[in-house]
Write a structure and sequence with these properties.
The chain has 450 residues and is of the alpha/beta class. Helices cover 41% and strands 11% of the residues. It contains 18 helices and 11 strands.
Length: 450
């Protein structure tokens, strides 16, 4: 008698798989390091395509601090730069590599890349100039192979070495962008891409420490020499926080295009979209934190896109989902605080409305001048909007060519900074009253006149 055959189970055995999560890139803004060390990365490489196809000869892109400007500029450098070591492997698994014509562009241009963020700590013009010389010298060092070539005349090699040694005159440093682009173009037989990151950091710092005029004068000549009428220039890209134009900083350039948060171009290339944040939270097992993350870090409006603060999101994930004002804790409030505690009465009145949860409609001028903040109330709104302390509540409406914008606080994190500044101010101002009680009255719109 045949034994009944055993039925084989078709149910698959569960296999326990441990997924190794990528490290969070806290303070990592070098694209090569980020990719080669397998850090978590939200793919923004289509910024390259958008810039190349729709951007201008010289593109100026202001965005709030910690929104990915330096990382994006580093991405441009490694993508376009013609170097001894091929960097194509950095992009092969990213969106830009899916477009064949851009694969052919990778590694084909000489690049000058300078970030000026370290100039924010200089206390006087002499110190700032020395720091500027050091930054320029470091970029010349990066290209010191040019000294071994025959494209430089002896006098050019001497000038090149003097810049590296920081013994050249201020006039030579004024024209250093022009000189280096000429040398690179002659060597590679190709025009140069110039990337200037955080161009306004030295200007903001100079404004705060009373040496604004010499800094503006230097920057006008330096940027003008490199980006205006430079036959060796292929593209120029400049990033910063503010749109500083009234000092004629960019008036000498040939029709630069300035792409602010009021416009759609590049709107989703700085900061995170909702779907990008959701995917990150899923990856790190924090899916249930989305609502809290949205309340704290979402709410910026760039063009038609709603954007999360990327710095705060990645720090929140790195802290296991703890909601905290991470963005606020990385910077000072030297520009914001005077508007709240010492500003014009009308500005303080409108800020009071905004803090109470209302919106305020303001004209946002084409540019701002840091040197005239005390005289020009409209510059206040320009700075608060572009630096991320306020955001658009709706698309801007132009009247007589000037955008009128409905402004509000972006999210709970930024609300915390207003609350903190007001608390500190009230503690100093109202010695015999409960400052928290006064603060509550202020936030609720029940203003106490003093």
């Amino acid at each position: 008698m045949k034994q009944p055959q055993k039925k084989h189970s078709t149910r698959k055995k569960k296999v326990s798989v441990t997924v190794e999560r990528r490290p969070i890139p806290i303070a990592v803004d070098d694209f090569k390091e980020l990719i080669e060390s397998n850090y978590s990365y939200v793919d923004k490489t289509l910024f390259i395509q958008e810039l190349w196809e729709k951007g201008a000869k010289v593109s100026i892109i202001p965005r709030p601090r910690r929104f990915g400007k330096t990382l994006n500029m580093s991405t441009l450098r490694y993508f376009f730069e013609k170097s001894e070591k091929n960097n194509a492997h950095l992009f092969t698994n990213l969106k830009i590599w899916e477009i064949s014509k851009f694969r052919e562009l990778q590694g084909t241009y000489p690049v000058i890349f300078l970030t000026l963020k370290d100039l924010k700590n200089a206390l006087n013009w002499e110190s700032a100039l020395e720091k500027m010389k050091l930054i320029i010298a470091d970029e010349f060092k990066r290209h010191r192979y040019l000294l071994q070539s025959d494209v430089l005349y002896p006098e050019d090699k001497e000038l090149f070495q003097n810049i590296i040694n920081r013994t050249a005159s201020e006039g030579v440093y004024n024209r250093s962008l022009k000189y280096l682009s000429q040398y690179l173009s002659d060597f590679y037989k190709k025009r140069v891409i110039i990337l200037i990151d955080e161009y306004d950091a030295p200007l903001i710092n100079a404004h705060l420490h009373d040496f604004y005029e010499p800094m503006v004068s230097f920057m006008q000549v330096w940027l003008g020499a490199g980006l205006k009428g430079n036959s060796c220039l292929e593209r120029g890209v400049v990033t910063g926080i503010l749109r500083v134009t009234k000092e004629d900083l960019f008036s000498t350039l040939n029709n630069p295009k300035i792409y602010t948060v009021l416009q759609d171009l590049f709107a989703d290339k700085f900061g995170f979209l909702e779907e990008e944040v959701s995917a990150l939270l899923d990856e790190y097992g924090l899916t249930d934190q989305l609502e809290g993350v949205r309340k704290w870090y979402n709410g910026y409006r760039f063009g038609s896109k709603t954007i999360y603060n990327p710095w705060s999101v990645i720090n929140c994930i790195d802290s296991g989902g703890e909601l905290d004002p991470y963005w606020i804790n990385t910077g000072n409030t030297d520009l914001l605080e005077p508007f709240i505690t010492k500003g014009d009465a009308s500005v303080k009145s409108e800020l009071t409305k905004i803090i109470a949860g209302e919106e305020s409609i303001q004209e946002i001028p084409e540019g701002t001048t840091l040197s005239a903040l005390t005289d020009d109330g409209s510059s206040v709104w320009n700075i608060l909007l572009f630096s991320g302390y306020l955001t658009l509540a709706a698309p801007p409406v132009k009247e007589a060519g000037v955008p009128k914008c409905s402004l509000r606080i972006p999210n709970h994190e930024v609300y915390c900074i207003y609350k903190q500044i007001i608390e500190n101010w009230l503690n100093k101002k109202f010695t015999n009253q409960n400052p928290l009680k006064v603060l509550r009255s202020l936030v609720e719109g029940d203003i106490i006149q003093t």
